[in-house]
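Quiz preparation item.
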């Protein structure tokens, strides 16, 4: 039985193969325009061979025109998994009729059951409904016109822009509070919440980009610009604020997984986010003071390697101690000479000053 993650990954793979501008999508649209209908299976193994009867071997390179011509026959067309070759044509498929399906038409119900039974993606082109549907292990996805997908994608991009602006605001506020040592769990949870929201909206847009194929190139550029650095910021926040104790790396990984697992309703609850970060439940959980280790601020110091950042945090433990450290104190860290110590000291001072100015000016 395929896991949900495996099914999602395979569905995304197939949607990329049938996106506008691909040879397979061209062939499917030719079938659609010809109004003959068709059934296309991606892959051939023993499980599929056991339920396929008749037809004939083709074993030819795939072209859109060949797919269209072969679809004029009633049987299914079987392609290589990557749709690079046409293996068989006019095959009759006899899946287990006891397998559950919500489909009513013969072609669609066959596509659904074959996909469930064999795990092979199946594409059904409906003559009467004028639609193309993809079936992957019980999952069904109907392909849409690019214009409809673009309309939804543009709405999502506008939403993402607003959420990214809000993320930048709360992230800047958190940085100022870190300098002043006034951070509470609530401040951290708000930033983590906004990061998760931005990433989830971005993931939705990535799905649209996948379906749009060549029509989604400009959308890709917008998306990359809007989410630049957000995933890195997510890791830095977790590394800065997961409570001490136990194996640090494991706690960071656990917190990242817990944030990803939050439901949409949980994401609106700051207490749930705080618990995902590793804070113990308490009546005044969100108002509890907390202190960063310094990863977020050190990551903004130019030309500072990650290994040096780790050593600095290990040595000084908190951002406040880092801010108070002089050049001689910084030089006690392995790999930090006088030049680098001066660079760190000046970099932290400039960041602290600019962060406070941005907040109050």
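Solution:
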């Amino acid at each position: 039985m395929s896991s949900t993650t495996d099914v999602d990954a395979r569905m995304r793979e197939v949607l990329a193969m049938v996106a506008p501008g691909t040879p397979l999508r061209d062939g499917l649209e030719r079938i659609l325009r010809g109004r003959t209908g068709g059934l296309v299976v991606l892959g051939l193994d023993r499980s599929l061979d056991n339920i396929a009867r008749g037809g004939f071997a083709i074993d030819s390179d795939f072209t859109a025109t060949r797919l269209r011509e072969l679809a004029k026959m009633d049987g299914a067309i079987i392609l290589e998994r990557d749709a690079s070759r046409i293996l068989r044509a006019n095959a009759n498929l006899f899946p287990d009729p006891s397998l559950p399906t919500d489909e009513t038409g013969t072609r669609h119900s066959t596509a659904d059951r074959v996909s469930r039974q064999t795990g092979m993606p199946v594409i059904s082109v409906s003559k009467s409904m004028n639609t193309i549907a993809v079936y992957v292990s019980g999952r069904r996805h109907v392909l849409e016109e690019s214009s409809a997908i673009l309309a939804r994608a543009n709405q999502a991009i506008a939403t993402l822009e607003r959420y990214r602006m809000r993320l930048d605001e709360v992230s800047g506020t958190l940085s100022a509070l870190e300098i002043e040592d006034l951070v509470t769990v609530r401040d951290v949870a708000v930033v983590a919440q906004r990061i998760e929201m931005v990433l989830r909206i971005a993931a939705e847009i990535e799905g649209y980009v996948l379906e749009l194929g060549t029509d989604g190139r400009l959308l890709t550029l917008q998306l990359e610009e809007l989410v630049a650095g957000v995933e890195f910021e997510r890791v830095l926040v977790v590394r800065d604020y997961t409570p001490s104790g136990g194996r640090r790396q494991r706690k960071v990984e656990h917190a990242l997984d817990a944030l990803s697992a939050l439901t949409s309703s949980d994401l609106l609850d700051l207490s749930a986010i705080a618990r995902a970060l590793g804070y113990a439940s308490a009546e005044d959980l969100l108002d509890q003071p907390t202190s960063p280790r310094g990863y977020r601020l050190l990551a903004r110091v130019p030309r500072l390697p990650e290994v040096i950042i780790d050593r600095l945090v290990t040595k000084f433990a908190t951002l406040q101690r880092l801010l108070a450290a002089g050049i001689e104190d910084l030089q006690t860290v392995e790999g930090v000479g006088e030049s680098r110590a001066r660079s760190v000291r000046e970099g932290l001072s400039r960041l602290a000053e600019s962060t406070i100015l941005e907040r109050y000016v």
